[in-house]
Automatic annotation (TrEMBL):
<feature type="binding site">
    <location>
        <begin position="229"/>
        <end position="232"/>
    </location>
    <ligand>
        <name>substrate</name>
    </ligand>
</feature>
<dbReference type="InterPro" id="IPR029055">
    <property type="entry name" value="Ntn_hydrolases_N"/>
</dbReference>
<dbReference type="GO" id="GO:0016811">
    <property type="term" value="F:hydrolase activity, acting on carbon-nitrogen (but not peptide) bonds, in linear amides"/>
</dbReference>
<feature type="site" description="Cleavage; by autolysis">
    <location>
        <begin position="179"/>
        <end position="180"/>
    </location>
</feature>
<feature type="binding site">
    <location>
        <begin position="208"/>
        <end position="211"/>
    </location>
    <ligand>
        <name>substrate</name>
    </ligand>
</feature>
<protein>
    <submittedName>
        <fullName>Isoaspartyl peptidase</fullName>
    </submittedName>
</protein>
<feature type="active site" description="Nucleophile">
    <location>
        <position position="180"/>
    </location>
</feature>
<dbReference type="Pfam" id="PF01112">
    <property type="entry name" value="Asparaginase_2"/>
</dbReference>
<dbReference type="InterPro" id="IPR000246">
    <property type="entry name" value="Peptidase_T2"/>
</dbReference>
Length: 317
């Protein structure tokens, strides 16, 4: 099999402008550090799927992002997390919905890849964590707890929580951001894989299901792979990840597929972003939100989308 340079793109959410300049510096540091580590693993010959799981674990460990440790709290003050994983070479999806008290929700999705029942929720997810003998883990950070307490004092006026954790001095604009993390990899053997992990919108009602563990939010085949972030309901309404992948599979260039998809999304008033890779090695992104927190590794250089103009924009490297 011919070997080629791997490609990696990751995201840490989408939303309104970052507000604080210092936030940009720490986010860039975190995203660039993680994309380099994932690239190194891919360069050493790991499969796209293993690289995706590794990248998602790193992002779930960072309290800056709304996934794993640092996830937002739901309206009842609990954290429930979801993750989706798709191996493009096998065109196989697995996912976990509304799991609590685990460190890496992506590990449960990865465990389910070869299983006959590949998407589990709530009680089934808790049962699986026990079966996997995962140590109980409390993903609630002080900042996220304070965010929820402020909302409680304000009688839950905000529709959702902030996607990027703020600081005590600079709490997030609670209406401004919604998030998720995502990792997309093309490995040296030309295989694609994608993973997405989230704490949800935050402050949502009990039982709400995020897009991340559906093929609207996470999708891949042999031609393209896409991870989405933003308002889950908007992502599901557009069936965003599958829509882009199917367009590329049917012969559209990645540039044309993104332009058409994000044109339609803008007309429909959607609020989200997506990152993508094609089997040809095109690294791509699109957004209708003000910012998309994405970083990528081309094999030669690391880049990011942190300071793109607000509004709808797509790009292919
Ligand atoms: N995209 C994350 C969520 O809406 O749950």
């Amino acid at each position: 099999m011919t070997q080629a340079l791997p490609k990696v793109i990751i995201h840490g959410g989408a939303g309104s402008s970052l507000g604080h300049k210092e936030r940009l510096v720490t986010l860039r540091e975190d995203l660039h550090g993680i994309v380099k580590q994932v690239y190194q693993k891919a360069e050493a010959g790991a499969s796209a799927r293993d690289c995706v799981v590794f990248g998602c674990q790193l992002m779930e460990d960072s309290p800056q992002f709304n996934a794993g440790y640092g996830s937002v709290l739901q309206s009842d003050g609990q954290v429930r997390m979801s993750a989706g994983l798709m191996d493009g070479s096998a065109q196989r999806f697995s996912g976990i919905i509304n799991v609590s008290r685990v460190r890496h929700p992506i590990d449960l999705a990865a465990y389910l890849q070869p299983a006959p029942d590949r998407v589990l929720s709530d009680v089934g997810a808790a049962e699986l964590a026990r079966e996997m003998a995962l140590a109980p883990f409390d993903p609630i950070t002080d900042l996220r707890l304070q965010e929820w307490m402020r909302e409680r004092a304000n009688n839950f006026q905000s529709p959702m929580a902030g996607v990027v954790a703020g600081t005590v001095d600079a709490p997030e604009d609670l209406e401004a951001r919604r998030g998720t993390i995502g990792v997309v990899v093309l490995d040296m053997d030309g295989r694609l894989a994608v993973g997405t992990s989230t704490g949800g919108k935050g402050l949502e009602r009990l039982g709400r299901v995020s897009d991340s563990a559906t093929s609207a939010g996470t999708y891949a085949n042999g031609f393209a792979a896409v991870s989405c972030t933003g308002i889950g309901e908007d992502i599901v309404d557009e069936c965003l990840a599958s829509r882009i992948v199917v367009r590329v599979t049917d012969g559209m260039t990645m540039t044309a597929a993104l332009a058409k998809t994000f044109g339609e999304a803008t007309a429909n008033g959607r609020d989200f972003g997506a990152i993508a890779l094609s089997h040809r090695g095109e690294i791509a992104w699109g957004k209708t939100s003000d910012v998309l927190l994405a970083a990528y590794h081309t094999g030669d250089a690391v880049g990011d989308t942190l300071e793109l103009n607000s509004g709808t924009l797509t790009g292919v490297v």
